[in-house]
Design brief:
A 7-stranded parallel β-sheet has the order 6-5-4-9-12-14-15, with helices on both faces. The chain has a 3-stranded antiparallel β-sheet with strand order 1-3-2. Strands 10-11-13 form a 3-stranded antiparallel β-sheet. About 40% of the residues lie in helices and about 25% in strands. The chain is globular. It has helices spanning about 5-15, 20-30, 35-45, 70, 75-85, 100-110, 125-130, 155-160, 185-200, 235-245; strands at about 20, 50, 55-60, 95-100, 120, 135-140, 145, 150-155, 165-170, 175, 180-185, 200-205, 220, 230, 250. With about 250 residues, the chain is of the alpha/beta class.
Amino acid sequence: MLAIERRNEILERLQREKRVVVSELSQHYQVTEETIRRDLEKLEHDGLVVKSYGGAVLNEQNIVGLPFDVRKNQCVAEKQKIAGLVEGLVREGEAVMLDVSSTAVYIARELKKKEKLTVITNSVEIIVELYDMPKWTVISTGGTVREKSFALWGPHTDEVLSSYHVDKAIISCKGLDLGNGITDYVEQDASSKRMMLRAAKERILVADYTKFDTTAFTKVTDWAFITKIVTDRKPAKKWLDEFERLRIECIYPS
């Protein structure tokens, strides 16, 4: 196993358990404790963990979030459920914007059931995912590549997004709160998501159950800009009541 793969697995374990122990990781990966300490030092340097006596804990104050290749492998079943529901909302021939979220990658895979679509995205991962769809039009926004995120961002990205008018914008987020609205970790991502919402007739928010009652670093938008929300399980009554009040259609598995 490569060191980067081991570190990504350690991050996934921290997401589940919040704390790891050097001796246990050493035995699990069959490497020396010194190797594990170097892994944890690298993760601490990246701002993802805080080393503690004999191990490490997840850095809950990290406003950037986990690397894309880690996030993509989290809550996979939930993301697949959401993707299946979204596929049923998109019609043949429509123009759709997809953001740089890991959930959007699963949606792109489901949408490949369609014969013809136009997809505009600032996600390098989605562009690669859709390379084998000859009847589709796949448009990259261009922009600056952000390290570890497979995201294109910056003034050029937002300018390109603002130049199109599409049927649907499909965005995700890192936090949903009744008072604080829809939030994300990275300001550049939040800006691109806002541009997508402004460009679309129908504005769809996708979020698994872990995002509810959570507030991330920066605001994306208020609830008034969302027309539909798709999630992996039935939300609590307070959420359903609020969605009904705001006339937001909430879609979840029956």
